[in-house]
């Protein structure tokens, strides 16, 4: 009765203040709560009352039944269970409600629902969503124990065989990824040393000789009026960018477009734009309103919904529209004439911005790869590689969506933690004909390095390609703003990693500069900074850096082939 009263009271309060999405959930939530967890071992089934877990969290003493289940699981598997049951996740009730109604949130719950089943052995998606929202509204927050208290069915069934398969899959995937990462580092360390870069080139980690000036740019989106509804959701009538210009340069500056990732904006990589401008580049940092910081905050606050799959199309189109506008300005506006050369452009991007860079540089969307990689709702790969949950939104692109989004003005690609394994097949990655540098972080829990960067690198056919490994960096390291006290996305500290200042930012600045000087500005002397020895010298605790131009080691090839057979069949399509 105590659980039922709490659930009913919370339902009344939430309907009063939440409305909308919360009301839709709560109208279907029964007054029951989970009373037991049933562990399905095939022919054998064992149940554990939720009250046993509640007693354990209060006293630290296991019941006989719980101790027996713990012995079956192995003692090491329950170490820290007491803390895990009572540690709240950093999500408010409104955030949980909004997140679980986004396509990304729904796909996540569908996957988890394959492991946690209903009494009739069906996917528990609806019950999971209701329990998550209700538990997040409890004064104690969204804890595992509160989730069980508010689970709207009497029994939470756990498919132990599926769970064991999942645990083995995740463990093996990360072990294979770390083994491959280490093997590539070993190959890089074994590369013969070359002469150090000439001293007269300066230190690419430091600001260059030019002052910088920022010119905000807002212009009409030329594709908006004629766009279909699905694409308009990811677009706006006006496009905004900040263009960082070098002061005192006597020739047109090459352009580097910078594309931010999910829940960021054009200020995220201002440090990189300012650095490139100080060395003679015009760095144009775009806003992508269909996936920026403002939209993410609106989704979590309940005032907006996801922009949908159109973001995969809108992002590269924004790049082309920006280059079109810069070309127009250099022809017609005295303030811009002679300042930059948009026909010689590079692109740098991180995460979803890395996808944007690869797509703008020539890799088209492969609908067969998307279908094979995403159509099965029970894929374990989504949990092993969470970025697939975002990428598989492309399944909902209409047949009219364009697939070739490259721009011939893009002459070089620098992609940090790029995603896109479910979007590009081998054939499409082979379309990239310009110099390409990929950065991969071994602590990236969102875009798994082996799947999202190492395997795509292995199928690139461009003659100038680089793979930089960043040890101890995470998916979020390049985009952390140390001045911000709170992210739009409530990311646990262990996924954020160590502060990027000063060493990671300095290394990323140096690599971008050397790459674009060599392959965009045509100053080939800077190739000396794109050598394994120099990249290794950028290492400074806690970060380590390595560089390779190919994956020739038989051991690495064996590991890659093992991964292809297990997980990465989609990249073999389109041959």
Could you give a short description of this structure?
The protein contains 24 helices and 13 strands.
The protein's oligomeric status is: single chain
Tally of discrete structural domains: 2
CATH level-four homologous superfamily name of the largest domain: Alpha/Beta hydrolase fold, catalytic domain
Radius of gyration: 25 Å
Distance between the first and last residues' Cα? 62 Å
Q: Note the beta-strand portion.
A: 15-25%
* DSSP, total strands: 13
CATH class membership of the largest domain: Alpha Beta
Give the neighbour order of strands across the main sheet: 5-6-8-7-9-10-11-12-13
Keywords: Hydrolase, Lipid degradation, Lipid metabolism
GO molecular function: hydrolase activity
Pfam family, one: DUF1400
Protein name: Alpha/beta hydrolase
Provide a descriptive summary of the structure in words.
With 575 residues, this protein is of the alpha/beta class. The chain folds into 2 domains: 2-153, no CATH class; 183-197 and 206-572, Alpha/Beta hydrolase fold, catalytic domain (Rossmann fold), CATH 3.40.50. The protein has helices at residues 2-17, 20-26, 50-59, 64-73, 81-86, 93-99, 103-115, 125-136, 144-150, 160-189, 229-232, 270-278, 293-301, 311-332, 352-360, 367-374, 381-384, 387-391, 426-429, 449-459, 493-496, 503-519, 532-537, 554-566; strands at residues 36-41, 44-49, 116-117, 155-159, 211-220, 238-247, 253-259, 282-286, 340-350, 410-416, 436-441, 465-471, 544-548. A 9-stranded mixed β-sheet has the order 5-6-8-7-9-10-11-12-13, sandwiched between helices. A 4-stranded mixed β-sheet has the order 2-1-4-3. Helix 12 links the parallel strand 7 and strand 8. Helix 10 packs antiparallel against helix 24 and helix 14 (311-332) crosses helix 15. The longest helix is centred in the N-terminal third of the chain and has 30 residues, at 160-189. Pfam families: DUF1400, PAF-AH_p_II. GO terms for molecular function: hydrolase activity. It comes from Gloeobacter morelensis MG652769.
